[in-house]
Queue: 2 jobs
Job 1
Amino acid sequence: MVQDIITTFQKLYNQEPIVIRSAGRVNLIGEHTDYNEGFVLPAAIDKELYFAIAPNGTTSMRAYSFDLHEKSTFNLEQVAPTQTAWANYLLGVVAQLQKAGHTVPGFDLVFGGNIPMGAGLSSSAAVECGLAYALNHLFGFGLGKMDLVKMAQKAEHEYAGVMCGIMDQFASMFGKRNHVIRLDCRSLEYEYFPFDMRDYRLVLCDTQVKHSLASSEYNTRRQECEAGVTILQKHYPQVNSLRDVTLEMLESQKDEFDAVVYRRCTYVVQENLRVEQACLDLERGDLEAFGQKMFASHQGLQHDYEVSCPELDFLAQVARGCEGVLGARMMGGGFGGCTINLVRLSGLEKFTETVEKAYLQQFNRSLPIYIARIVDGTGLVQTAKPEATGREAEWTR
Ligand code: GLA
């Protein structure tokens, strides 16, 4: 795949690119906690995008989407959101760099890969992080990875209209092979935890449901959480976000809450506790206990936070009845996309057979299944081939 992207670049633009790889992500536990300043536990996975890129001496971005076979040129002196949905993620990043005072010279780009779109694996974050990293490298802006993550997140807010938290962009950029990352979304401190893949697999079951309500409902959930914080602040001035809230605090002010907002807030507070406990399980190597928390997370997302859908609920339910499945739940924003399943290697085949069959019977639809490997985050894969010497490209990974 990467070679095809490079070859396409050479044919289209008649020059040599550098190549950046950027990854999609999974999240083991800690859903809808990031924008509440809580904890998440994501990892970058081997669903990836490659960016072949080089300066072009103009003031335009010439971009080609390898997966969609579409080409577009944009004047970088007047960057604004466009009708071309895929280009918005790129332009959003350029706009952020410009806002931070950097001049972004013209460049040529071919990008593409194997992250299924709309499957909840954060293909958009991978696009944003890949380009942010590439431009920073290419033009020497000197920005750190965390700065790039924040810019990528802002690009999503301003050019895709989703008021996302920081998890997806963070995981895509900071992923580390065979490790999950616990991120404190308030302080942005993070810790890598080894994730033993010898006897277990992370299995993603793709409902192929792309719910059109996903972004509007997502923004509504944010507002509901904020409404809860506003109520609690009257009684507990130290509360800045649901991160500062305990179940007891919620309970004591229950009368003031609208029932829906109460359920939303309860879920977030419980999920935060689950992430912290799940990390202790990981440290002890107790994946059984870890898996139980994944099931509990799904229950909360289904009934209290209400961001699931029948297909996700069905898959989580079937998984629960399969021997060898330690935990299962919906993943990401919700309303479609994938479930994530923690499966014992010895039960893997039986599990995939069972869910595929059950899904087909129930929804008359096939079920794409991905076995995720945990890989490194965004990085340089290939520096430009020195033309004069004809030396082989230097592969850094
Ligand atoms: C989406 C957002 C993330 C996060 C998850 C839910 O993936 O982009 O910031 O809020 O939903 O955990």
Note: Residues 31-32, 34-35, 164-165, 167-168, 332-333 surround alpha-D-galactopyranose (CB under 6 Å).
Job 2
Amino acid sequence: MNVLGIETSCDETSVAVLKFSQGQIKLAAHLVSSQVKLHARWGGVVPELAARRHTEVIIPLLDTTLKKARTTPAKIDLIAVAAGPGLITALQVGVETAKTLALAWKKPLVGVNHIAGHLVSPFLATSSWPLANRKTTWPAVALVVSGGHTELHLIKSLGQQRLLGRTLDDAAGEAFDKTAKLLKLPYPGGPQVAKLARLGDPTAFVFPRPLIKNSNYDFSFAGLKTAVLYQVQKLKNITPQTQADLCASFQNAAVEVLVSKTLRAAREHKAKTIIVAGGVSANHELQKQLTAAAKLLRPAPGTLFPDSEFTGDNAAMIALAGAIEANKRGLKPYKNGWRTTQAQANWELWQ
Ligand code: KG4
Ligand code: ZN
């Protein structure tokens, strides 16, 4: 089965062709057009500009992706599009493009939840795909950490998940981005904070670890961001070293909360694997601390992160999530997808 994936939920336009057959996957082509430069001068994503740029680039990107995959519309068996959650006008560009293609090419269409895409992203690497079908992988606990979401899921098997907890206010990536803004670092802030943190002392400032002792699996990052704000206001002179110390201390607090809650969920649910996905899963400190902490559990669960190419938003993960769905239910339910698929800005995975 050849799956065409489309992703436009935020500020990346992405198209991919994934070949899915006899338990094997092969990414035939995968392109991402990032809008980072477009939004940088505004310090954040401007929804109207994002949607306009998606509209401009999606068709040329589709054309190039099909050529790179050395395939034609006739050889596509399923179209998978990210239908939510995300920015509504941005999502609509991908969804309406996918619906038009599905009608014109007479192809089944499946609307994929963007978070379900992130959850399968670690399996896009050829080396980790075999783990997806191994009994020794499941159950898994998965932490999705992105600019819009921070969620912990219990996964029984690929595509079968239950929400354990989520952020009550800001997402982890949002906290990184807002901290970067406070420190006047360029957009997008997460990678900048992570970069500067390497030069700083993580114990220089003591920031709160919100909800770390709470017995549920929910998170809260708004207070942590405010604590950084108060600290910045107190400091008269912020030298480059103070800036690095602030980044390192903030990152340390955020990572400690993420690791602590994820590890407790893994222990309490006897997880055999810990999966981390979403933009913030690219954070080296998070990867390092989580891997080290998991090794101390008995029995120790494996840890799985996406390849760096797949930590951010991409259409390959949407194609894979769509393929898994169609593999479970067959293509028939998606035959009239062009009629029924709608963009849903607030589509939560557990609803
Ligand atoms: O998954 P993603 O690309 O888009 C959303 O669905 O939100 O995640 C983007 C988020 C941004 O907040 C960005 O600052 C953050 O991921 N991010 C990082 C790192 N790389 C990206 N945060 C911390 N450390 C990083 N290395
Ligand atoms: Zn995302």
Note: Strands lie at 2-7, 12-21, 24-34, 78-84, 109-113, 140-145, 150-157, 160-166, 273-277, 302-304.
